[in-house]
Amino acid sequence: MTHDPIPMIQSIIDHPEMSDGAPPFTRRMGFDKYMRFTRVAVGEFDLEWTVEQELCHVDGFVQGGITVVVADVAQSFAFWSTSTTPEAYSTTDFHTRYLRPIRAGKVVRVESRVNNRSKRTAAIESRFMDSETGKLLAIVTGGWVVVERNIG
């Protein structure tokens, strides 16, 4: 039997109100209200993120670590989309390059792509772009590895 995660991910995109399996931290950080998953293909995952003031400094610029958390969410779906068998995975590292400030109230398009996938590892890149201007705001690269993990 072939394992195809794309229909499962597409179902989450099409019916977010029915996906109660999201990690608890995403609800705690309000991502269930401010993130909208928009597209999946093998090795690719896109979302839109409306930056809320609660995750920003007093001047309205997003706290940098939040960008990495958003990339982590997007990259996990990109990794999952490449799975040919049920598997658990985790990050090994992230590298973030901030190019322009990400401001409260902006809608940011996040496009994640698996650049390389082996049996046990993956290198994934997320590009954060202003949805109005198309300007590149940040690039986050992540290393991922298949792990033994009870995700049940």
From TrEMBL:
GO molecular function: fatty acyl-CoA hydrolase activity
SUPFAM superfamilies registered for this protein in UniProt: Thioesterase/thiol ester dehydrase-isomerase
This protein's UniProt keywords: Hydrolase
Pfam families, per database record: 4HBT
Source superkingdom: Bacteria
Limits of the Thioesterase domain: 60-134
Protein name, as recorded: PaaI family thioesterase
